[in-house]
Design brief:
alpha+beta, 201 residues, Immunoglobulin-like, 2 helices
């Protein structure tokens, strides 16, 4: 069964082109394309001179917790290469590879960490935003944000981990309603004080 059908067909090819043509050459370049409904992602990593790639995130105490990923593919010079899968990732002969994989998300959040510093890019579909700091988390700091073809592209250089939260129009509306509600409460609480000051004057 085909997973994350809302991710456009051919996205693997597009992501590979981004890795090759756009991103600076480092030992690790990785791009995540978030699905249209925010429920999953397609990742493509370019790795050099390595024999492993881990899928992990940080736990409550900073420990390494395996991420669940599916549809893992490993390519070298355009050819599919076999690998062995372990608890935290995959292992393969030392070399340069392109790795594809898919994963699920919830709550418009995604968090992961890497075994080395690398260039990381997140591509968000049009409906998701990262403009409002009250609804957004972009870690580590120093992310470069740009927009192209109705997509938001977030890029980090030399990142060792990733922690991102984005939002949609519905969440933005709820924040506005919440703010208006507390403004009304504040006014109601201030009115007796203002009236009492007026009588004293």
């Amino acid at each position: 069964m085909r997973r994350y059908h809302r991710i456009p067909a051919g996205c693997l090819t597009v992501l590979i082109l981004v890795l090759i043509l756009v991103l600076p050459a480092t030992a690790l370049n990785i791009t995540y394309l978030i699905s249209e409904d925010g429920s999953g992602y397609r990742g493509v990593a370019s790795v050099n001179s390595t024999d492993r790639f881990d899928f992990v995130q940080s736990g409550m105490l900073g420990e390494r917790v395996p991420l669940t990923v599916t549809n893992i593919s490993l390519y070298q010079d355009g050819s599919n290469v076999s690998y062995s899968q372990e608890r935290e990732g995959i292992r393969f002969p030392l070399g340069n590879y392109t790795i594809g994989f898919e994963g699920k998300m919830s709550g418009n959040t995604f968090q992961t960490q890497y075994s080395e510093f690398g260039n990381v890019t997140i591509v968000l579909p049009e409906k998701f935003k990262v403009d409002n700091p009250l609804l957004t988390s972009l870690q580590p700091g120093g992310a470069n944000i740009s927009r192209n073809l109705n997509q938001t592209i977030i890029h980090w250089e030399k990142a060792r981990y990733l922690d991102i939260r984005f939002y949609d129009a519905g969440q933005e509306s709820l924040l506005s309603i919440f703010g208006q509600f507390w403004l009304i409460i504040a006014v109601m609480l201030l009115l007796p004080f203002l009236f009492s000051r007026g009588r004293q004057g």
